[in-house]
Amino acid sequence: MQVIKNWTALHLKDYRIFIFSIILLQVLALVNLLIKPQLPIVVGFVLLVIFLITTVQYLRAMQAFVVIAIIVSEALYIETGGPVVRAIDLVLLHLVTITFIKWLLNPKDTIEALPTFYFGFMLLVGAAVLSLLGTISIKGTVIEFIQLAELIIACILFYNLIKTREDIKFIFLVILCYALLDSFFIIGKSVTGQLIGRRVGLWGSVAFELCFGMALSLAFFYMSQKIWIKTLFIISGFIITNAILLTQGRALLLVGLIMTMVCNFLFSIQKKKTSLFIILTLLTLSMVLIAYMTQGATIQTRYTSIVEGGNFRDLRLIVWAVSLMAWQSSPIWGIGLGNTGLAISLYSPKPFGIALLALEGVKTAHNEYLNFILQAGIAGGIAIVFFYFILWKKAYSLYKRCKGRDKEYITIILAFISGVVVFGMSNDLILAGNGMIVMLLVALVARIGTLQQFEDQTGIL
To answer: Residue 13 has what pLDDT?
Structure first.
């Protein structure tokens, strides 16, 4: 009886503390509104506390925050006049701090070294070092060196954060859920007539994650057993396809289709169902066609222009031409990492005419491979091509070796890599703020390789 009384008193005390905290929070929020209504200080502080507590206590929360931070960093960043501080940079700093504290508390809890991909990173670092010989701004190159080092460190942290097959599946589910959330947001803006411009996703992004979500919908369709769950994934794929068309992102649509078709082809081989491949191919193309037919004339015209190169074909060709002109000033060593924006401004035709006015704000070459050639010369071009080739080859080698869930997961990653490689032909990734996406793919490939090696040695799946 005394135990019950003590337990009741203890929980009653906790209840009173909770009520007091809620009242205090309300008072502070009112004070915040009274003094600085434009700055949500209290709300931001509460969200920060929730973030710190959940990420320290729950591994899944940290994994989700990392993935979401990678996705939103394309739009959520601060330009400091030097390095660009993105959302993922802050989350990584938090992850490093947690890892360091855990190591201090338990020195045996060491960080696993990345078991593979050293040569790929050495190529990038080597090209970066050589670019110092031709750099037109040592400050820009040093800043890019720091960001390249951060990418490599991030890859190691991602590898240590993702340890099991369940973790890999969770990462995929987070991407898919965010893609669906963004899709509903975009469709909602369209319905209410607020869909203006290209950056229509959450936080004002171009919604690059929709490509991954489109492929994941089909992959989970194959991986699911129950009909009603398969139906839900087909519906989710249709919703994401509609959202992609609403973004007017031609590259997003093409890359999404590539990722989806690679998934479809490889999964059909695994399941030995050629007929299912044909059915799902026709279904995917039908969903795209239906989504296209239900859009307005402006969006339809934009996607029809894919055949001719698009509304901004001439501008992109001009950017590439200017980038090649800048590269010719230092073809062997390049102009130095981090100097693309400066080079474009120096070599763009002067004065700006109406047709060239948009070049004034261009900071990248809009081509992953040309961007490396421009910044790091011939060595940079070779380095980036081999970097992606090594990544794709390692994923494909695992695809041939793996069985069960590992084979399904590496299939998805192989589709992602194929899409990213194509996306790089008209967009920038590693040296333009999207490198964390690539590093996550490297970490996933490395982790599946480790799991497969463990299985080969022990026979445990």
So the answer is: 47
What's the one-letter identity of residue 76?
Answer: L
Q: 77 - beta bridge partners?
A: 86
pTM (two decimals)? 0.86
- Here the tokens at position 131 are 């670019």
User: What's the pLDDT score for residue 456?
Assistant: 65
- DSSP annotation of 78 reads E
Q: Are 157 and 99 in contact (CB under 8 A)?
A: yes
Name the amino acid, one letter, at 424.
G
Report the C-alpha gap between 210 and 410 in whole angstroms.
19
441 close to 419: Cβ distance less than 8 angstroms? no
In this prediction, residue 99 carries a pLDDT of 83
Q: Which two tokens stand for residue 123?
A: 């190529």
179, 452, 460 from 68: Cα distances, Å: 10, 27, 32
Side chain identity, residue 93 = L
Q: Which residue has the tokens 């009112």?
A: 30
* CA gap 256, 183 in Å, rounded: 14
End-to-end CA distance of the chain: 50
Across 93-97, 165-169, 430-434, least confident range: 430-434
Closest C-alpha to 60, from 173, 186, 150 = 173
Mean pLDDT of 137-143: 89
Closest CA to 449 of 399, 390, 386: 399
The token pair at 337 is 């990492």
Going by C-alpha positions, the residue among 194, 165, 138 that lies closest to residue 336 is: 138
Instruction: Count the residues in the chain.
Output: 461
* Ordered alpha helix ranges (H), 202-273: 209-223, 227-247, 250-271
Kindly state the tokens that stand for 234.
Answer: 């087909």
Beta bridge partners of 78: 85
